[in-house]
């Protein structure tokens, strides 16, 4: 799951900017609680995505507390589209291999 | 203070902070964000009926062990330090070589050894500046520890070459040196001191980053 964290974070930010804990809540909600990763891995991943130019982060006051909010950049939208494409390709290959259909007869 | 009075969130953020080395502003910002996240998590758990102290302990447990989390934070500090040291080299080295080129034009007819040494220094400076720019471009995607190691090496070797050639030139230099020579030496000394401090910091950050490597 760790390898896909970047794509998952970009996906939950597609709808609009969120702060760190709201991103974690969105990840948990969208996965139906199946995504069980240490929450402490999400914050440095956000900084890494910011360093890569996929996210823009800034401090602002949300709910009476200073919070760091992240939004998807244009490069981040491209990165998300690329990740979706790769995932679709991977899913297709795996489902083809795993499918119960017999191999097409050759010769 | 007894174990019962130590707040789990405070203790966890302090333990994380103790593991991290790097630019103070980013370190403080990341720790503040971690604390905020833990406070949010505890609040959210309290909202579901969990007793406050238990909620704080559970938020800490969900956050992950410091040993597991700290390497990921440390990588970001390594990237930030690479950017800082690389920026210093990329900006100051071309400025220095410009100053010395202007000075050299001030005193034509220098001995051939002096011209050769000057060229060594100029090429070293330009190569260092190019490598620093390459690091700045690469740090967005590169493995932070590698970028930091590269720029620490450049920041150590290039000033060494410049100091050795610079001192030799000063010894061989013509007695009728330019009137601007003291100012040029002062500017060079200021840049070198700033650079040595930055490279020293980069080295310390690199040592820490290597001590807690990030598992991929």
Sum up the structure in keywords.
heterodimer; A: 107 residues; alpha+beta; Arc Repressor Mutant, subunit A; three-stranded antiparallel beta sheet; 4 helices; B: 216 residues; mainly alpha; 2 domains; 7 helices; rod-shaped
Explain this structure.
- The complex is a heterodimer of chains A (107) and B (216).
- By secondary structure, chain A is α+β, with helices and mostly antiparallel strands.
- Chain A has a single domain (2-98), classed as Arc Repressor Mutant, subunit A.
- Chain A is 50% helix and 17% strand.
- Chain A has a three-stranded antiparallel sheet.
- In chain A, a hairpin with a 2-residue loop joins strand 2 (55-62) and strand 3 (65-72).
- Chain A is elongated.
- The mean pLDDT of chain A is 89.
- Chain B is mostly helical and 216 residues long.
- Chain B has two domains: 8-64, no CATH class; 81-211, no CATH class.
- In chain B, 81% of the residues lie in helices and 0% in strands.
- Chain B is built from seven helices and no strands.
- Chain B has helices at residues 8-19, 24-47, 52-63, 66-106, 112-138, 144-172, 181-211.
- In chain B, helix 2 packs across helix 3 (52-63).
- The longest helix of chain B has 41 residues, at 66-106.
- The radius of gyration of chain B is 24 Å and the shape is rod-shaped.
Map the helices and strands:
The complex is a heterodimer of chains A (107) and B (216).
Chain A: H1 5-12, E1 18-19, H2 20-30, H3 42-51, E2 55-62, E3 65-72, H4 74-98
Chain B: H1 8-19, H2 24-47, H3 52-63, H4 66-106, H5 112-138, H6 144-172, H7 181-211
Helix pairs in contact in B: 1-2, 1-4, 2-3, 4-5, 4-6, 4-7, 5-6, 6-7
